[in-house]
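Lab notebook, bench 4. We co-purified these components, and the gel suggests they stay together. Before we commit to crystallization screens, I want a quick structural picture of the whole thing.
Request: model the full complex, all chains together.
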Amino acid sequence: MNISHRQVNKRVRFTDASGNPLAGKDIKVKQIAHKFLFGCGGFDFMPYVIDGNEFFKDITEKWLEIFNYATLPFYWGNFEPEEGKPDTENLLKTAKYMQSKGVKVKGHPLCWHTVCANWLMQYDNATILKKQLERIDREVGTYKGVIDMWDVINEVVIMPIFDKYDNAITRICKEKGRVGLIKQVFDEAHSINPGATLLLNDFNTSISYEILIDGCLSAGVPISAIGIQSHQHQGYWGKEKIEEVLERYSHFGLPIHFTENTILSGSLVPEYIEDLNDWQVEEWPSTPEGEERQCKELEEMYRMLFAHPLVEAITTWDFRDGAWLKAPSGIIRKDGTVKPAYDMLKNLIHKEWSTDETLTTDENGFVKLDAFKGEYNIEAKGTNVNAVFLKDGEQQIII
Amino acid sequence: MNISHRQVNKRVRFTDASGNPLAGKDIKVKQIAHKFLFGCGGFDFMPYVIDGNEFFKDITEKWLEIFNYATLPFYWGNFEPEEGKPDTENLLKTAKYMQSKGVKVKGHPLCWHTVCANWLMQYDNATILKKQLERIDREVGTYKGVIDMWDVINEVVIMPIFDKYDNAITRICKEKGRVGLIKQVFDEAHSINPGATLLLNDFNTSISYEILIDGCLSAGVPISAIGIQSHQHQGYWGKEKIEEVLERYSHFGLPIHFTENTILSGSLVPEYIEDLNDWQVEEWPSTPEGEERQCKELEEMYRMLFAHPLVEAITTWDFRDGAWLKAPSGIIRKDGTVKPAYDMLKNLIHKEWSTDETLTTDENGFVKLDAFKGEYNIEAKGTNVNAVFLKDGEQQIII
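Here is the predicted assembly.
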C-alpha cells in the first residue's frame, strides 16, 4: 500500500547563524510527534488526573507511549446531571493535563439523544433547543484553546426515529428535521470557535448517512470532517467493507475520521442482536486466540486507513478491556497488561511509520530526507533544535 | 376511516339575479369533477390520439370513465432518441386532447438515469448538465399551460450509485451530489414555470429517502409534493406498511402523491429478485383469483390513502395488463375487458366518494350540504349552472 502522502520529500540545508553550510556533518533526525491523529478514548485519564489513582497512572503512561490524540466524554447526562451544575473543572483539568503531554483532545459529543440530560424533558421543544444551543456556547467557549475539536452531533441518522425511550433530543430532531438540527448546532459551535474542527459522527455507514452528509453540505453546514464509527463487536469488517466505506465517503472530498474503532479479542456478539446495548453479559473474557486475531485485524485495518489520503484520524475506542459492555475491546487487558495489539500498534506508529535517521550533509550542508509528517528533534554538533516537516521541498535549519 | 377532510360542509343560498331567495325549490347537485387527483398512466392515449387506433379509442373511453389525472411519458431516451429531434408534437397533441377531456396531465420525468439519452454520454459532465438544464427549459416551457405538473427528477436515492450500465445522469449526480443535482433541476423547472407543481419521485421508501427530502428542504429546493412509487409486484404492502410510510412521510407537512401504484392480479415476483427489470417472462396471465385479490387490496389501499389528509393524488400505473414487464398490473385485461378492480374503483370514485343529491331550499333559499370537494352541476327550475365547492361555509348561487 502506498503511504507516500504521509511523508514529505525534503532537501534540508543546515547552516550556522551566519548562513555558512555545515558540510560533512552527521545529523540525527528523530520524529517526536505525528501529524496523523493516532487516537484513543481518554476516559482512563480521569481517575488519575482528578483523583490521583495510581493504577490509572500506570494505564495513562502506557496510553501515552502510543497515542497523540484523545476523546474525552461530554455526555450531557453525565456532565450536567443536575441542571446548572456542569462538571466543568474535572474535564478541564484532565484536558489540560493531556495537552501538557502533547495530546490533542476532542470533546464527544455536544448533542446526542443517548446519555442525554433527563431534566431537559420537563421543557417544551423551543426551550430544549435553546438550552442545547446554550450548552454548546458554554462548552465550546469554556474549553477553547484546550479543546478545539468536537463531535458536534452524534448518530443523527436514527436520532428522530430513536424509540427505545423518550428523550429531549429526539423530540427536537423530529420537529426540526435532521439537517435542520444539524445546521443549528454546527452554526452555534462554529460561531463560538471558528477555528475548531467540527465533526458529524455516526455508526450508520449506509447510503442514508451519505445522503445526510450531502444534504448538510448543500445546506451550508460547516462540517470539518466526517466521523465514522466502526465498533466491530459482531466481527471484523474486513478489507472489502473497509474499502467500500472509504470509497463511498471519500466522494465528498472532506477529511475522514474513524472516531470509534473497536475490534474484540474475545467472542463476538451474535448477528441477530440489533442494538449492541442489548448484549448484557456477566463476564466477557479476552482469549489468547482472540488476542492474536484482534492484533491481525487491527493491523490490517490501520494499514488500510493510513494508506487512504483522506483519513486524518483513527481512534481506538477502549484502551482497556471491560469498559463499554464489559467487552474485551481494549489493547490492554483489564489488569493493565498489554495485548499483542498494543505492541503491534506501538511498533507500527513509532517505528515503521516514524522517521529516526542519521544523515551526513554534503559539502553545501544539504541532506535529502523522506520523513513522516510531523515534528522533529534535530541533533548536530551536540546541539538540539526542533523542526516541523509538513511540506515537500527545501528548508533551511540553523544549528 | 374519517374522510371528512375530503368534503366541504356548506350552507348554500339560491337566489335569482335580483337576490330574491328561491324558496321551497328542488335543487339537483351533481359532482362533475373531483379535487382529489385520481390518476392513471396515460400512455394508452397515444396510439389513439396520434394514430387514430380504434382499439385504443375504446381503451381511452374506459379510462375516462374513472380517472381525472394522467401521467405522460417524457423519458429522454424515447422522447429525443436523436439529439435535437424531440417528439414534441405527438405529446403536445395527446396532452391537449386529455386537457380537453378535463384531465390534468403530469410529465414524467425530466431527469432520470434510466431510459436516458445515450447520445449524452459523448459529452463531458459540464456539457451533460448544461444539456439537462436546457432540456428542462424546453419541455417545461413548451408544455406550460398544458402540462403544469412534473416529476422533475426520478429515483435519486440510487442515482449516483446505479451501476447496471454507464449513463450520463449517474455521472453528473456522482459529481454534483444528490441534493446538488436535485437543487439545480428543480430551480431550473421552477424558474420556467413558477406556478407548476414539481415532484421529487422515488421507489425507495426507506429512511434514506426521508433524509434526502430533509436535505433538499434545508437546501431550499422548491418541492411541491413528495412522490412515492408503490409498485407491488412482490406482494401487497398491506395496512401496516402503508400506515408506516404515511406516518414517516407526513412529517414534512408537504402533499404526498402516490405516483406509480401497481397491485397485480396474477402471480407475484419472488422476493429474491432485487430489480424488477430482471424478471423477464414470456407470459404473465391474470387469473380469476388474482383479480379478486387485486380488487380487495386495491380497495383497501385507496381507502387508506384517501383518508390521509396529506395525500393529494393516487396514480394507478398501468391501466391495461401487459405493459411494463408484461405484468397483469392493469385494471383492465389485455383484450380491453374490465376486471373487478375497474368496477370497484368506478363505484368508489364516482358513487361513494361523489355527491349527487336533490335538496329542497328553505323559505330563505338555503340548503345545507356535505359535498366532496370539486366541481358541480346545479340544476334548478330547469336551469343549469356550474359551481366549485372547495371550502366550508356560506356560498350564494344565482339561478
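The first helix of chain B runs from residue 45 to 51. Worth comparing against the SEC data before the next meeting. Chain B has a mean pLDDT of 96.
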